[in-house]
Amino acid sequence: MEVVINVMNELEPFSTRSISAKYRVLVAKDLVKRFGEVVAVDGLSIDVFSGEVYCLVGPNGAGKTTTLRIVVGLLKPDRGSVVIDGYDVWTSRREALMRVGYVPDYPNLPSYLTPLEFLYYVAALRGFKKFDVEEYVRYYVDILNMSDDVKKPIRALSRGGLQKTAIAASLIVKPKLVVMDEPLTNIEIDTQVTFKREILRLAREFGVSFLISSHMLPLIEGACSRVGIINKGKLVLEGSMDSVLRVIGERARFEDVYMKVLGRDVEESARGS
Questions:
Q1: Rg, the chain, Cα only
Q2: Disulfide: which of 6, 46, 69, 255 matches 75 by Cβ 3.0-4.6 Å?
Q3: Can you tell me the mean pLDDT for 231-254?
Q4: Residue 246: CA atoms inside 13 Å, Cβ hemisphere, count?
């Protein structure tokens, strides 16, 4: 039997909930998802607390994207439940998803709109008036380096431009939980740095929670307060970054822990770095 190693016993606030106490914003329990004979997610359970940046890490095909799609209600699990801020994603769908921002792995945005039009469209779908989010839109257009692209049609954007638009859309709606699947794909280094600082600010100051799937070590090591390693649909290691690093030694790097947990050769990894 496989066992999860758990080593963890200037804008107005996005949320009115007190962030002084830890609160489970996301409770995903015993998730199972099959595609024919393939078990993509196999009994996976994840909690994400208020003000936490939780990174879900694993090899390609491990079940990360399937898990995130279940969390945001795009896929229905064969078994298990997802509760966001106290609302079940399937029985109280509207209430649950109104609290979520989402960045998919491959954003498919309306090609005929400009990024600016799309951001206001997303805000309107959530019930916000234009004046409610204008300050947020200007802020994220600025810090995500989108100024040169906001009036172009989305079909003219680079892949990085699409990612930035999706990121901005996930944040302007004042979410309690932001789910992001490889958010920094094709984004330039300076914007990656700004992004990392911004999610840490939102988590620290406003208690916004993040569930992020990523392969990018600077993001994982620099922003994640807790990490879960998934392999073959199962969570095989979970804990705070500090406690996860201590699994194989005081001076370990995350890549060493990752290789060890997946049964790879840590010394070989070190020789190749």
A1: 19
A2: 69
A3: 88
A4: 8
